[in-house]
Specification:
7-stranded parallel sheet, 260 residues, alpha/beta
């Protein structure tokens, strides 16, 4: 399927590993020049080399923290007129809300709500003027099905989703779409670190915990990040302009609801 993205330009945040990297890969495989950001240059360079080898696309590395003004400015300087923006950031830590103070909440909201909004603000008017724009926010299954120990994530990501629900419907007439991708369990470093901690606390093998997690999913497995990347590319397709303000679950059927 030709997604009609040849020659387009994208900024993909937190793209050195995991789901962000998978999104950058899928966009590049569809002819998009990508700017990838993350804090660790070595990881970014490795990801860029892998994406270039697989796709032949132009990949520009911008090392920096996208949650800071300087990090955002650097990404936008490298790609001042993106056709595609993929917002992504590492999730806040797990825990009990009784242990979190104001600074914890502000850090979570800044990274997972305010930063994506500021990136959208920086690019959306240009997209409107050019009559093409695709913005994808990587959030979490917790937006639809809150996870008790991820209260910081639940709150911040739900706030972003609520804001976008209104804005998406304001800009859709200009062929600019804003949608969310809500991952469930995918084999990323974040999942592996959580499994490793669970294994440490329970004295069980990590592989056993992963297998148990897979069995609880209707699909019977954990997701492959490449699948997530392909879903991102589909939402960015030229033919996807009628998909507006939606939140697409990729969770192997884990969220049980008639209406999704």
């Amino acid at each position: 399927m030709d997604l009609g993205l040849q020659g387009r330009k994208a900024i993909v945040c937190a793209a050195s590993k995991g789901l962000g990297k998978a999104c950058a890969m899928s966009l590049a495989m569809n002819g998009v020049d990508v700017v990838i950001t993350a804090r660790t240059r070595a990881d970014l360079e490795a990801a860029a080399a892998e994406i270039r080898k697989a796709s032949g696309a132009k990949v520009t590395v911008v090392a920096g923290d996208i949650t800071t003004e300087a990090g955002r400015a650097a990404a936008l300087a490298a790609c001042p007129e993106p056709d595609i923006l993929v917002n992504n950031a590492g999730g806040p830590p797990r825990g009990d809300f009784r242990d979190w103070g104001r600074d914890d909440w502000m850090k979570a909201v800044d990274a997972n709500m305010i930063t994506p909004i500021l990136m959208i603000k920086a690019v959306v008017d240009g997209m409107i003027a050019r009559k093409f724009g695709r913005i994808v926010n990587i959030t979490s299954i917790s937006v639809k099905s809150p996870i008790s120990e991820l209260g910081l994530s639940n709150g911040a990501r739900a706030g972003l989703t609520g804001f976008v629900g209104g804005l998406a419907r304001q800009v859709a007439q200009h062929n600019v779409t804003i949608n969310g991708l809500l991952p469930g369990a995918f084999l990323t470093d974040r999942l592996r670190s959580g499994i490793a901690e669970a294994a440490r606390q329970t004295s069980r093998p990590a592989d056993e915990i992963i297998a148990e997690r897979a069995r609880r999913t209707p699909a019977g497995r954990i997701g492959n990040p490449a699948e997530f990347g392909e879903a991102c590319a589909f939402l960015c397709a030229a033919s996807s302009g009628y998909i507006v303000g939606q939140n697409l679950l990729l969770d192997g059927g884990a969220f049980n609801s008639t209406m999704g």
